[in-house]
Amino acid sequence: MTAADFRSDTLTRPTPAMRRAMAEAEVGDDVYGEDPTVRALEAELAALFGRAAALFVPTGSMGNQIAVHLQTAPGEEVAVGEASHSYDWEMGALAALSGVQARILATDRGRIDVEAARAALRPAGGFRPACRLLLVENTHNFHGGAVVPLSHLEALHAAARDRGAQVHLDGARLWNAAVASGTALEAYARTADTLMVCLSKGLGAPVGSLLVGDADLIARARDVRKRFGGGMRQVGVLAAPGRVALATMRERLAEDHARARRLAAGLLGNPGVTRPFGEAETNIVLVQVAGRDAAELARRLAARGVRASTAGPDRLRFVTHFDVDDAGVQLAIEAFAAALSA
Ligand SMILES: Cc1ncc(COP(=O)(O)O)c(C=O)c1O
Fold first, then answer.
1. 207, 238 Cβ separation under 8 angstroms
2. Does the pTM exceed 0.90?
3. Model confidence over 267-296: pLDDT tens digits?
4. Ligand 1: which of 10, 82, 85 to mutate, most ligand atoms within 8 Å of CB?
């Protein structure tokens, strides 16, 4: 392999089976609720999580923001862990689309402290707005793909319940968490009122995420999706590769995790290289090179055919996925050592 792109698992391209499914998909107008392939995908997804309903949305960001919109009112707060995608990487959508402000909570490997969450989630009173929704992310992207343990999610959910608040789980990579920890998807789903999962990351579908929850909430989510411009027509052509992804791509994520561990070991073998968030548990490797300019290192890697993204002034992020193989990992390890010493 002479080139390997580790910038993101969103770079995965649809497999031949996905492309065939796209070509052959039965379709209808999904805004009328008449696309049989979308309906089948939504039903499969809801069943997989043991929940009543699911809604196909174009992106994970839209899924997160519909969930926020439905479970808050303008002027209220959401409690969210620092470096979370839903507030840090979605173009200020919390404020712009739902008129809510974010109460940022410290996290340890993506885990929000349960007592801090309990304190943050409060009813309105004394000129202070209600904080009605807790946003949780699993795996946690910018904490190096950390898996938030089920027991921790259960404790957060119980704290939210005590405070009369809801929980939304950003599960863009929940598939990775489930494979790495052996936790059942249904068990994760019981810890959240709404959850969002992406088909377009490690599972390799070209497009698509789903919002999962109770029937009445998902019915209302359909209307919000339309308002946000996400009502799509013969979109079975995109749901079809998503069904292939669900059926065939989940178990193989363990290969990406094994490659991430090998890659982490290789990168950490260089002097001065540390990991800011502990071991690579899933498919994301974050490394820190104190005193070095990450952007410059990324340019040197690119010159050697390896692409990685920066995750801070001295941090690089590598994401493994099915379009990088063992040779790509080896290339990255060698290129990184060369970039450091160049
Ligand atoms: C944790 C997390 N949540 C949500 C998203 C948003 O997904 P999308 O790019 O489909 O909007 C991402 C994208 O990388 C993500 O990493």
1. yes
2. yes
3. 999 999 999 888 889 999 999 999 999 999
4. 85
